[in-house]
Amino acid sequence: MDKEQLNWYAVKVFYNKVFEMETLLHDHGLTTYLAAEKRRLKGPAHTAARRKLALLQEEHKTSPRYIQEGPFIYERVPMVSSLIFFQATESDLSALEKELKDPSGGSPKGFIYKTPDWKSYAVIPQRQMEIFRLVTDSGASGLDFFSPDDIALYKEGGKVRVTEGPLQGVEGYVKRIRKDRRLLVCLDGIIGVATSYIPMQFLEPVEE
Asked: Are 82 and 18 in contact (CB under 8 A)?
């Protein structure tokens, strides 16, 4: 029997509990991606995090929020507090969706994005996911995130590829957003991310 294909999917997370959702998905043996910045903690914030990590270590647990590297402690700060991505086969989805909707008498945790007609789960194309990750992992400043409804408000320009800088290789559409020409990368029906201004000499046209 052929092995089922792994695809990328997205979960809308309720109550901004993305770290709890990340743990739940890992408990199901799934690979996840959470777009997050890594910020070094200092002063009282560092002390509080160090205490939390020490208590977790005593219980042989780890924290999805904090990362310790030698004497330094970093906090993962989600770029979008209600969204996380995961890789799964189609047969993984029904049981996961049931747990998200009916968590043993508690509140629903979230839902897996579906296609516009709601007949199937929304598969994120591998190339779209790669480009989205290139942007969110780049360390570039000035990123803005948009819902599908927000994206529809902006006039679509030509598709281009970034040729230089931290976003080299990223493909998207040039759009005028808040009076500035920016590059918009979209995961269809889920989310868009707009970069800060990129000079036109760092862009080349891409045929679709």
From this structure: yes
